[in-house]
Amino acid sequence: MPLPEPRRGLVISHAYLWHHEHLAGREEARKHRPCVIVLAIENPTGGHPIVLVAPVTHSMPENPAAAFELPRAVNRHLGLDDERSWVILDQVNRFQWPGFDLRPISPSGDRFTHGFLPPRLFDQLMVKLRAVWTASPGKTISRD
Question: Largest Cα–Cα distance in the chain?
Fold first, then answer.
């Protein structure tokens, strides 16, 4: 299956490097997880698009004000499990698409995406993301 085009709201499987892992000197993520593409822009140097992804986690957020809970119906729509999950909004990974951290979704091995967040829900997520980054600049980890 060909690689998807990077589009906002697409949930991909990505080896996300958390900020605390980066600070500890890690260069590789411990595991891959669903991540939401929150920004995909044309590369000013003419290369592949630049993408920012926010991680999805089951862990209760340390800062609930900087997280967006996904409804269970959306988790089911994306093929995720029924556990509570949050998109963490105060940190992102930045990379040139498709990057070396894009991972196939097990067990298929040929699919890299879970699908799109519903547009209205993605708009709500982006409103909260802007508020979080306006209040306090988040952390961006470059994965190139």
Answer: 42
Cα dihedral 103→61→63→68 (10° resolution): 70
C-beta of residue 66 within 8 angstroms of C-beta of residue 55: no
Paired sense of beta strands 91-96 and 139-142, if any: parallel
CATH number of residue 16's parent domain: 2.30.30.110
- Candidates 106, 119, 117; CA nearest to 36 is 117
CA separation for the pair 99, 50 (Å, rounded): 10
pTM recorded for the entire structure = 0.96
Boundaries of domain holding 111: 10-142
- For residue range 118-128, list pLDDT tens digits in order: 999 999 999 99
Looking at the 3D structure of the chain, how many domains does it have? 1
Retrieve residue 85's tokens: 């999950």
**How confident is the model at residue 1, as a pLDDT?**
64
Q: Are 12 and 112 in contact (CB under 8 A)?
A: yes
The token pair that represents 70 in the structure block: 């996904």
- The residue among 54, 56, 41, 136 whose CA lies nearest residue 96 is 41
Q: Give the closest residue to 59 by CA, choosing from 77, 20, 86.
A: 86
